[in-house]
Design a protein that fits this description.
The complex is a heterodimer of chains A (251) and B (268). By secondary structure, chain A is mainly β. Chain A has a domain of 164 residues: Sortase, Chain: A (Beta Barrel), CATH 2.40.260.10. Chain A has an eight-stranded mixed β-barrel. In chain A, strands 3-4 form a two-stranded antiparallel ribbon. Chain A has a two-stranded antiparallel ribbon with strand order 7-8. The longest helix of chain A is centred in the N-terminal third of the chain and has 15 residues. Chain B has one domain. Chain B is globular. Classes of the chains: A mainly beta (251), B alpha+beta (268). Chains A and B meet through helix 1, helix 2, strand 3, strand 4 and strand 7 of A and helix 1, strand 1, helix 2, strand 8 and helix 6 of B. Chain B: It comes from Tessaracoccus antarcticus. Chain B: Keywords: Signal. Chain B: This is CHRD domain-containing protein.
Chain lengths: 251, 268
Amino acid sequence: MASTKSPLQWRVLMGGAAGVVGVGVIGAALAFPSVTAPAALPAPSSVSTPTTSTSGAAASTPAGTPSASTPAASPAPSASVIPLNQTSPSTVPSSTPPPAVAALAESAPTRVKIPSIGVDAGTVSLGLDGNELETPADPDVVGWFTGAHTPGAPGRAVLAGHLTWNGRHTVFARLPQLAVGAIVEVDREDGTTAKFEVTKVSTFPKDAFPTDEVYASTDDPSLVLITCGGEYSKTQHYYDSNVIAFASALD
Amino acid sequence: MNRTWKSLAASAAISMAVAAPLAMSTTFASAHNGEDHDSAVTFRLDSMKGTNATGDATLTPTDSGGLVVEIRAKDMVPNSPHAQHIHGDTSGAMKHCPAPSADKDGNGFISIEEGFPDYGDIHISLTTTGDTTKASGLAVDRMPMADAQGNLSYKRTLTAAELPKGTLENLANLHVVQHGVDANDNGKYDMEGLGESTFAKSLGVDGIPAEATDSATCGMIMPAGGVATGGEAPTAPNSGLLAAGGVLLAGGAAVAISRRRSAAVTGA
């Protein structure tokens, strides 16, 4: 039988923990990615955009490898030397892959490409607006939610883009036409590209938003893409539904 | 061994008995005017590798800059204290709940050391009473107990002074993590399950079962309601927790969902 521990010893343990965990984190960084509303909107009719804007604090990735992250980089989802998360004390995460598909380490998305619906856009990080998902201030980029996983890492990643903006079509204008089986590619800050296949596209009334399904816990890398849909109220400038595409990682 | 855990359990039970009514009364006093339910955020607590434990956590900001933390979990190790924390940080670093692959030693569970790279350091210790800093991270005599059925219920109002700077602004980068597993299915924490906690040992304390410190559940934040990805430019895209823009559009739905969710949890 192992030795017993009294509550006193636990308190000692706590004291030790205090020493180890050390100084508190200073909230130096800004809370929300600074997404500023555009003062004047350009009005190109094109859906794609060349910009790549990953904003500030939330987008910073650990231990970046010198990456060849040109937007045109060819997909290389499985061959990867991935940097560890910054605080990791251990080494080499690349072995022991129980998932069916090759999972990447967490790394911020930099570009989203969906050839079948003409999307080729930069990204911006999204936090919360109150308790709701923030949306991109720039209607021509795709937002990624920093509170979920990053595309290609094990778990759910959440992307959101505008359908329309002041009457013109924007980055996710054709998301409602996305077909099951379509390919979604996400370039990442670490130079790798995560590749997904669309498994389902559905429309949900905003008052019956499938929160649990969207923010589901998945062992393998998975992706949801969200935009607006349904009926548009001109008086309220408001769509009553969201179109949501679900996608699973490909090798 | 048994006696140890009983005594731990007993002291935890006592502190619960003392603390819970206090926490409740504090919360109740502010319930009518202090809690900003429109800004409540929910975390679904998912099972960590090797466990069946699940739950929900709701964090509700108060008018005075505090945070009401409510947690309900089930299938926890019964009659045992469960260390629980808000992990992550406010530096903008991306932190997440660990995937099963975080189990580097392949013993079927995510230890504290295995989880840290993913879920980050302890930001707030969700004790039942007293100190809530990282120093209380393993203060099991002040951590909530699961009942005989493995259900755990927790509610505490953290004052503004108890919240590390930037907490409310960084909720999206924070996670709720509960600890305490039962690898050998004997209804308690013991050395026979997973051996000794190397984390506790690294702090200079021997003989703590790894079962007591391994991760049971982890929850990432779930934004409420639909997403305003159409129409005109949002009027206040970056105005923080009390932002009006999005709330005006979908606030009703958000509250409804939030209420439905808590009702469901209560019923479970």
